[in-house]
Specification:
Pfam families: OpgC_C. This is Membrane protein. Keywords: Membrane, Transmembrane, Transmembrane helix. With 386 residues, the protein is mostly helical. The chain has one domain. It contains 17 helices and no strands. The protein is globular and about 65 Å long. It starts with 8 loop residues before the first helix and ends in a 12-residue tail after the last helix.
Length: 386
């Protein structure tokens, strides 16, 4: 919510938790994949994008329908995300091209496993082409294919908000049709360095997740809960969230489940694909969000002082996300370069990386509060979609 009227702390808490879970998944520790799949069909990505949609309404949709949309502010935010993405790519490029200081003709990082994990094998052969493709968002190495999704979604946000003003039903129908079409045809953006040659997060599909968040955010903007509060709906959401955990484990870790995914059938894409955000992933994400808004333990967590660093991470998601991406890329390299990394070292890296991100979030929040104390102004919504 608008900061002056009291923020929606559940959005901050969920986003902060999602950032930490995304970091753990990106590190490629021996337990990362099992941890990622332990929450059901949906993972932190769906929840984060849905929260981004809710935040976008609270941040950019004026309460007065006669007031124009802040298009310039939205596009400035999109460009800010793009610049952060370029900075991360530049850091990765510099690291890969860094020469070995104790001998000519060698690089600091030469382990093939590390280069493959980072998806930068083509960088040294044609560095200018790689950098140009990265700037055009057609070469997205390692985990650096996430911020470009937000660049595209933020670029489309003025149109989505304008459609929502005209007719929420029209927005939902158009978004749903595009999601179905993208999933059925596997339409996606080009990524020349990733296996399969396409974006891991198809914007044509993931816009549907954002739009669902927009619809929920519109209800919050009107002072309503994001979902109708019905006992039967609560029971249904709980059943979906709980049953999806063993069902997803069976899909990911049993021979039958792996064989089903290997077929790449159209139904697989429709129901469980991450690139095209399958139906089961969406239903699970919606169920989790419903429970988050109706469980008393979540309400208490939003007020718990010891969870303030996590909520701060949600408020300052872009710098924390960028920090997590940088740290997880280094961890990826460590894991790929070694045949066996001790579990204790993996756990230490996870804890250290988490603490670094929470410390960054705490410092950002302290700086924000200091600025507000020194320059008081009328309360406005300063939430950001990312």
């Amino acid at each position: 919510m608008a900061e002056g009227a009291g923020r929606e702390e559940r959005i901050d808490l969920i986003r902060g938790l999602c950032l930490l879970l995304i970091f753990a998944a990106h590190c490629n520790f021996s337990f990362s994949y099992a941890l990622q799949q332990s929450r059901g069909f949906a993972d932190a990505s769906e929840l984060f994008v849905m929260m981004a949609g809710m935040s976008a309404v609270l941040a950019y949709m004026p309460r007065d329908p006669r007031q124009g949309l802040p298009v310039r502010r939205i596009l400035v935010r999109a460009f800010q995300i793009y610049r952060v993405h370029l900075a991360l790519v530049a850091g990765l490029v510099a690291l890969v091209l860094l020469p070995w200081p104790f001998g000519a003709g060698r690089f600091l990082i030469e382990d093939p496993g590390t280069l493959a994990a980072w998806q930068v094998e083509s960088l040294r052969a044609a560095p200018l082409r790689f950098v140009a493709d990265a700037a055009l968002l057609v070469a997205l190495p390692a985990n650096l294919d996430i911020l470009p999704l937000y660049v595209v979604l933020m670029g489309a946000l003025p149109l989505l908000l304008a459609l929502a003003r005209r007719s929420v039903a029209l927005l939902v129908a158009g978004s749903l049709a595009l999601w179905l079409l993208a999933g059925a045809t596997h339409a996606d953006f080009v990524n020349r360095v990733q296996e399969g040659g396409h974006w891991h997060f198809d914007p044509l599909s993931w816009q549907w997740v954002l739009v669902l968040g927009l619809v929920l955010g519109l209800r919050l903007r009107r002072g309503l809960p994001p979902f109708p509060e019905r006992p039967w709906l609560f029971r249904l959401a709980a059943a979906v969230a709980l049953l999806s955990i063993p069902a997803n484990f069976a899909l990911q870790f049993t021979p039958a489940g792996l064989e089903l995914q290997a077929r790449e059938h159209a139904l697989t894409a429709l129901f469980v694909s991450k690139a095209f955000c399958g139906v089961l992933r969406l239903l699970d994400a919606l169920a989790i969000v419903y429970l988050a808004w109706n469980l008393d333990i979540v309400r208490r967590a939003c007020r718990a002082p010891w969870l303030e660093p996590v909520r701060a991470a949600g408020r300052h998601s872009l710098p924390v996300f960028a920090c997590g991406l940088a740290l997880s890329t280094v961890a990826q390299g460590v894991m790929a370069a070694s045949a066996e990394v001790p579990l204790a070292l993996q756990s230490a890296l996870l804890i250290l990386g988490t603490l670094v991100q929470l410390r960054l979030a705490t410092r950002k929040e302290a700086a924000r509060r200091e600025r507000r104390r020194s320059a008081p102004r009328p309360p406005v919504s300063t939430s950001a979609a990312l």
